[in-house]
Amino acid sequence: MKSQIKKHPLINTLINLEGNQKACVYTEPLWGIPYNLYAPYATLYMYALGVKDQQIGLLLSIGTVLQVFAALFGGIATDKLGRRKCTFIFDLISWSIPALIWTLSQNFWWFLAATIFNSLWQITSNSWNCLMVEDCPPNLLVSIYTWCTVSGLLSVFFAPLAGILVSKATLIPAMRIIYGFTFIVMTAKFFILYFYSTETKQGLRRLEETKNQKTSEMLAGYKDIFLLIVRTPATRMILAIMTIINIGTMITNNFFGLYINMNLLIPESYIAYFPIVRAAVMLIFIFTVQAFINDLPYKPVMTIGAGLYILSNTLLILSKPQGYGILLLYMLCESFAHALLIPRKDSLLVLSVDPKERARIVGLMSVMMLAITSPFGWITGKLSEINRILPFVLNIILYVACAVLVLFSSPLAQHDNNKDADTIKA
User: Fold this and answer.
1) Domains of the chain in sequence order
2) Is the Cβ–Cβ distance between 260 and 266 less than 8 Å?
3) How much is the pTM?
4) At residue 5, does pLDDT exceed 70?
5) If you average pLDDT over each of 50-59, 371-380, 383-392, which comes out highest?
6) In this predicted model, what pLDDT tens digit does every residue of 74-101 receive, in sequence order?
7) What is the spatial distance between Cα 14 and Cα 93, in angstroms, rounded to a whole number?
8) Contact residues for 347 (Cβ-Cβ < 8 A; gap 6+)
9) Beta carbons within 10 angstroms of residue 8's beta carbon
C-alpha cells in the first residue's frame, strides 16, 4: 500500500522535490492556512465595520490600479534584488504589514491603507514564481503548480476554526484574532523560505547583468518587452486567459460570501464550511482524475474547465434561498473547473516567455492584465448594488470568452503537438 502511494505521479513528484521547488512548495501551507481562515469572512468583516458594497468595489479597483504599478516594477525589483531577496522583502511588506492593519481596522480608511500595502504582492508574485520554476525541469511544471493548489486546498480544512470562532466570539472580534494569527504565521513562513532557498542560476545572471543598470534604463527597456509580448501569439493568448481568470476570481472571492449570506440566507457561521466542501471535492479530483490527465493535450482540458466555470456560475444564479443542494453542485463544478484550468494556465505562462527575460516579461504581462482588470472592481461593486446576481452573470460572459479563446488558439494547438518543448514558439 505504501509503495503504491509513493508510485502515484503527484506523490512521487512531491517526495523527490529538491532545492527551491522543495522550499517553495513545502512552506506554502504557512501562507495558505491563515489566508483560508480569513478569506471567507474578509468582505463580511469590512461590511460589519461600515464599508458598503460600492466602497468594497472601490477598494478592489484602487488595489488593482496600485498592483499595476507594483507589477511594472516587479520585474525590475526581481532582477536587481534577486529572486530570493525580493521575495523575502516584499512578502513582509505586502502580507505581514496588511495583516497587522486588518487586525486593528476601524473603518474604510484602515482598509484603504491595508490595500495599499497589500497591492505590492504583485512584486513578490513575480519573484516567488521565478524562484520556484527557473531551475525546474519543464515536464514537472504542471505537477508543481498542482501541488501549490493542493497546498492551498489542504489549508482550507482549517477554515472551520474560523467558523467556530465567529459563532463564539462574533464576527469582528473573531476576525481580529484571525488577522493577528495571520501576521505571526505568514511572517514565520517568509523567514523559513528565505533561509532554505537559494538564488536561481538565471537570477544570478540577471543580478550581474543589471547591477550597473539604472532603474530608468530598465524601464525604458520595457518598450521592447511590450512589443515582444504583443507580437507573439503565445503571449497574447496567455495574457487574455490570465486577464479573464483574474477578473473572474476577483468577482468570486469578493462577492460569493456576500451573495450567499445576504441573498441565499446562508448563516455567517456556515460560510467557512463551503470552502471545505470545495477543497475536498477538488482534492479527490486531483488525486484520482487530474493526476492521470496531466499528459493530455491542454486545449480540450482547458476548454472543459472553462465550460465548468460557466455551468457553476449558472447554478449559483439559479440557486434558491438556503438551496444547499444546488450550492453543492455549484461547488462540484467550480472545483473541477479550477483543477483543470488554473495549473495549466500557470504552466503556460512559464512556457510562453523567453527564459532570459522571464522576470520583466511576466512583470509587464501582469501590468497589462491588471490595467484591463482595474475597472472591474468598481464595475462589479456597482453591479452588486443593483442586484447581487449580476456579478455572476458577468462571470458567465467572461468564461464563455475564455472557452472560445482556448478552443480556437493556434499557439495552444502548437503546444499540444509538441508538448515536450521548453517553450511555446508560436
Assistant:
1) 17-417 (1.20.1250.20)
2) yes
3) 0.73
4) no
5) 383-392
6) 888 998 999 999 999 999 999 999 999 9
7) 30
8) 141, 142, 145
9) 14
- Could you please report the per-residue DSSP string of 126-161? HHHHHHHHTTS-GGGHHHHHHHHHHHHHHHHTTHHH
The predicted pLDDT at position 321 comes to 86
Among 424, 397, 148, 129, CA closest to 298? 424
Radius of gyration for the chain, computed over Cα atoms and rounded to the nearest angstrom: 21
Q: 380: closest CA among 54, 43, 47?
A: 54
Buried b (16+ CB within 10 A) or exposed e, 331-348: bbbbbbbbbbbbbbbbbb
CA distance linking residue 410 with residue 178, whole number of Å: 46
pLDDT value at residue 232: 83
Q: Residue 426 — very low, low, confident or very high, per pLDDT cuts 50/70/90?
A: very low
State pLDDT tens for residues 174-212: 999 999 999 999 999 999 999 999 999 988 998 988 888
DSSP symbol at 30? H
Query: Measured between alpha carbons, how far apart are the two ends of the chain, in Å?
Result: 44
Cβ-contact 345, 412 below 8 angstroms? no
Residue 136 has what pLDDT? Answer: 79
What residue has cell string 478552443? 407
* 66 and 232 Cβ atoms separated by less than 8 Å: no
Angle of CA points 156, 167, 249, to nearest 5°: 35
Distance (Å, rounded) from C-alpha 248 to C-alpha 240? 12
Distance CA 54, CA 306 (A): 28
Query: Other CB atoms closer than 10 Å to residue 18's CB: what's the count?
Result: 9
241 closest CA partner among 343, 145, 132, 381 = 343
